[in-house]
Amino acid sequence: MSTQGSEHQRAERAKAAREAADEVYRAILSRAPEHDIDPTLDRVRAVCELLGDPQRAYRTIHLTGTNGKTSTSRMVERLLREHGLRTGRFTSPHLTRVTERIAIDGEPISDERFVEVWQDVAPYVHLVDQRSAEKGEPRLSFFEVFTVMAFAAFADAPVDVAVVEVGLGGRWDATNVVDGEVAVITPIAMDHERYLGDTLVEIASEKSGIVKDGATLVLAEQTEDVEGVVLAAAAEHGARVVREGVEIAVVDRQVAVGGQMLTLRGLGGVYSEVFLPLHGAFQAHNALLALVAVEAFLTGGAALDGDVVGAAFADVTSPGRLEVVRSSPTVIVDGAHNPAGVEALVASLEEAFAFQRVVGVVGVMADKDPEGILSVLEPVLAEIVVTRAPTSRALDPQDLAEVAIDVFGEDRVHVVERLDEAVDLAASLAESEVERGAAVLVTGSIVLVAEARILLGRP
């Protein structure tokens, strides 16, 4: 067969696999959405038991928090891989393809494998759905199904260790059927109040539910009341607690070309001249948590090889987090979707870039805090284009514009329904008054950022 013919066959097979994976994804999407929590682990536990408890076939590091979970998960996974371990990584949401959520050895599972995993778990999912229906209870949700698929895919690979990010909260999150040897809690802030509680203490109580008996908890700096709640939960489970700012710290960080140079004090000693190709103080703190989680996991706290650590961090990526996706003008996307996340974004933007004029493209979810988000953005944006995030959960652009006018004033606010047109308008507004140093910032929702990345040709 000619090379051209075999390439055509490969392309046809890839197209068919993609279509099959998309069909499976659409079917799973018909279930209750991932933000719709039903506080029970019974359904996931039941399916896992029928599958032979795949989540117990490997060791686990479990992560929760309000901001920084995915970036930290990616760093943990990259460090483990550099140490020669086979890894599974489960994160959410995805940016381009749903297969990104389930990664093995750092790569999203293939479309073919995605379909195979669904076919493996589907009979057991349907059986538990049927039992639930008989009791007048809901079937497995979208996120519960994905969690089961991830655990099954990891067991089948098989992986040595799974890095598992919670979907929402902790205690009742579908992922909480794992027994993480190491738990990581990133900074806790107000978010998802409808599901997790109206105070930081309530939210902290939910998130600390991932700490298991005898585990090591790596804890980011928190407010005093949050720390108290988490420490009490850890004490209940006899967990060892390692606290940022007490046992571990970011000792120093310097802005460098393409990222930053870090000095980190972990459990095993000080790691100096660690290059991280990501911008922002928050990423330095994520790196510290990741480093210490891997120290605790691999050695119980003894020092890791500095060259191995350096090689891993130098190769870290964090798509959709202060990511430059186009130049002339520069277009940056960032998935910040609550005031605390936007504060970190603004600080990082000012530190890492010297833009003269930035115009924002912003779309938010209806259940978020638009006033809080926009108030933090206002000092750094010359003008703002409000648009619609591509999801039924999005806040209507006209409603968002009303909030934006209160914050920015009418002259600085524009409303464009379609994202491609919003980005084009923002680019022309950014370049309208400066010859260089113009930028567009797309933020407010991970769904919006995902769409912008696709629009601008990012894989």
Structural class: alpha/beta
Sheet bearing the most strands, described?
Answer: 8 strands, mixed
Low-confidence stretches: none
Figure out the total of helices.
15
Terminus-to-terminus distance: 31 Å
Strand order of the largest sheet: 4-3-2-5-1-6-7-8
What general outline do the C-alpha atoms trace? globular
- The strand count comes to 17
Helix content: 40-55%
Indicate the radius of gyration in whole angstroms: 22 Å
- Percent strand equals 15-25%
Mean pLDDT value: 94
Write the layout of secondary structure elements.
Blueprint lengths: L2 H27 L12 H9 L8 E6 L4 H14 L4 E4 L11 E3 L2 E2 L2 H24 L7 H15 L4 E5 L16 E4 L7 H4 L3 H8 L8 E4 L4 H13 L3 E4 L5 E8 L2 E7 L4 E7 L4 H19 L6 H9 L8 E4 L3 E5 L4 H14 L4 E6 L7 H8 L5 E4 L10 H12 L4 E3 L3 H13 L6 E6 L2 H10 L4
Parallel strand pairs: 1-5, 1-6, 2-5, 6-7, 7-8, 13-17, 14-15, 14-17, 15-16
Antiparallel strand pairs: 2-3, 3-4, 9-10, 10-11, 12-13
Keywords:
459 residues, 15 helices, alpha/beta, globular, eight-stranded mixed beta sheet
Give structural notes:
This protein is of the alpha/beta class and 459 residues long. Helices cover 43% and strands 18% of the residues. It has 15 helices and 17 strands. It has helices at 3-29, 42-50, 69-82, 111-134, 142-156, 193-196, 200-207, 224-236, 281-299, 306-314, 339-352, 370-377, 397-408, 419-431, 446-455, and strands at 59-64, 87-90, 102-104, 107-108, 161-165, 182-185, 216-219, 240-243, 249-256, 259-265, 270-276, 323-326, 330-334, 357-362, 383-386, 413-415, 438-443. An eight-stranded mixed sheet has the order 4-3-2-5-1-6-7-8, with helices on both faces. It has a six-stranded mixed sheet with strand order 12-13-17-14-15-16. Helix 1 (3-29) runs parallel beside helix 4 (111-134), helix 3 packs across helix 10 (306-314) and helix 7 runs parallel beside helix 8 (224-236). It is globular, with a radius of gyration of 22 Å. The two termini are 31 Å apart. The model has no long low-confidence stretch (mean pLDDT 94).
